[in-house]
């Protein structure tokens, strides 16, 4: 995350930092990326399914 923060500071583009923070929050919350469950054959929980229905939740 530090590297993305440095990149955001150098370029003035906060999108880089927001990108990594959003993904970090998902891993902190679910211990994985629920977006990849279909590829790995895992079943989504109700909470993971709700996340995927949120606006701008896809990568």
Structural class, from helix and strand content?
Answer: mainly alpha
The rough form would be described as: elongated
Overall pLDDT score: 90
- Low-pLDDT segments: none
Rg over CA atoms, rounded to whole Å, is 14 Å
Number of domains: 1
Care to count the β-strands? 0
Counted by DSSP, the helix tally is 4
Helix content: 55-70%
State the distance separating the first and last CA atoms: 17 Å
| Percent of residues in beta strands | under 5%
Helix/strand order, N-terminal first: HHHH
Describe the sheet with the most strands: none
Pfam family, one: DUF924
Protein name: DUF924 family protein
Detailed description of the structure:
- It comes from Trinickia fusca.
- This is DUF924 family protein.
- InterPro entries: DUF924 (IPR010323), TPR-like_helical_dom_sf (IPR011990).
- The chain contains 4 helices and no strands.
- It has helices at residues 2-11, 15-30, 37-40, 46-53.
- It has 59 residues and is an all-alpha fold.
- It has one domain.
- The longest helix is centred in the middle third of the chain and has 16 residues, at 15-30.
How does the SSE layout of this entry go?
Layout: H1 2-11, H2 15-30, H3 37-40, H4 46-53
């Amino acid at each position: 995350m530090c590297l993305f923060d440095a990149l955001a500071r150098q370029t003035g583009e906060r999108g880089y930092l927001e990108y990594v923070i959003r993904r970090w929050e998902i891993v902190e919350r679910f211990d994985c990326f629920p977006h990849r469950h279909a590829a790995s054959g895992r079943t989504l929980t109700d909470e993971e399914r709700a996340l995927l229905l949120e606006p701008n939740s896809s990568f």
